[in-house]
Structures are given as C-alpha cells and as structure tokens.
UniProtKB/TrEMBL annotation:
It comes from Candidatus Halomonas stercoripullorum. The gene is lptE. One of its GO terms (molecular function) is lipopolysaccharide binding. Belongs to the LptE lipoprotein family. This is LPS-assembly lipoprotein LptE. The lineage of its organism: Bacteria, Pseudomonadati, Pseudomonadota, Gammaproteobacteria, Oceanospirillales. Pfam families: LptE.
Length: 164
C-alpha cells in the first residue's frame, strides 16, 4: 500500500514538473534571442536607451551605427498622479512610463515599424509616516516600468526578420 502511494506521488510530481516546464516555454522564458543580428540605436542617451543597448547585446544582437536597421527611441516620459482622495495617511499613486519608438531600414529609410508607443504603469503606496522612503519607492517604480517597457519592446522586435 505504501509502495503505491509512493509511486503515485512520484508520478504526480513528475507530471507537475513536466507541465511547469511547458508553461515556462509558453510564456517566453525559454525563447531564443532576437532574429536580428545587428541593429543601430538612435535617440537620447536616457536610462531606457542604455538598458535597451545592454539587453540587445545580451540577446546576441550587435549594436553599432552601421547596422541595416535603426531602432529610434524617443525620450522616456514618466507621469505620476495620486489616486487617493484623502490628504493624509497612506496614499496610492500611479506612475506611467511612455516611450515612443520606431524601426527604420537604413537603405531607403522605410519604416518597418512606424512610430508606436510603449506605455506601462504601476501603482504604489506612499505614507506620510515614512517620508525618507518615498524617493526610494518612486525610483523602484521607475526601474520596474523600464524593465516592463523593455520586455515589451523586445517582444515587438521579435517579429522583425533579418531580411526586412
């Protein structure tokens, strides 16, 4: 009887691990880098620009000025507004990041992806009781927004083929 229970538990654990592995692949964690071998970056030298350059390089894409395609990044724009109506106590805030981008072919300046906007948002709570942590919470929200916007940008760049 214990042997059957042990066998069933092993089968259930094996099935759970197999399904978990499939789920990760379906969510894109197991996908290869971009199909684009090289790409030029154009735009203001913001933190988002630097993070994009770093991630493209890490994904196996060479970033240099002579590449056949150009990724144009506009300035990152953060907007924050308070969602709470009360003037005191914990206050909920929403921060939104918008980054315009486009992709051009260098040979004829044709747009492969016409200007689009990455727009992501997050919510966080600020408290008057902890004024020193407010700047840290805002900076953490900015980091999270940049990461999410970059993840979405890379997903959109995956549709481009090297022959585009």
């Amino acid at each position: 009887m214990q042997r059957r229970t042990f066998l069933h538990a092993g089968l259930v654990a094996g099935a759970a691990l197999t399904l978990a592995g499939c789920g990760f692949r379906l969510r894109g964690f197991d996908t290869p880098g971009l199909a684009i071998a090289e790409l030029a970056l154009a735009g203001s030298n913001s933190e988002f620009y630097q993070l994009t350059e770093e991630r493209l390089t890490r994904a196996g894409t060479q970033v240099h000025d002579r590449a056949a395609m150009i990724l144009n990044l506009g300035p990152e724009n953060f907007r924050e507004h308070r969602l709470s109506v009360l003037e005191s106590g914990p206050q909920e805030h929403e921060m939104r990041l918008t980054v315009p981008y486009s992709v051009q072919r260098r040979s004829d300046n044709a747009y492969l992806i016409a200007e689009q906007r990455l727009e992501v948002s997050t919510r966080f709570t600020l408290s008057d009781a902890n004024l020193l942590a407010q700047d840290e919470l805002r900076e953490e929200a900015r980091r999270e927004l940049r990461e999410e916007a970059l993840r979405r940008l890379l997903e959109r760049l995956r549709i481009l083929s090297p022959s585009s």
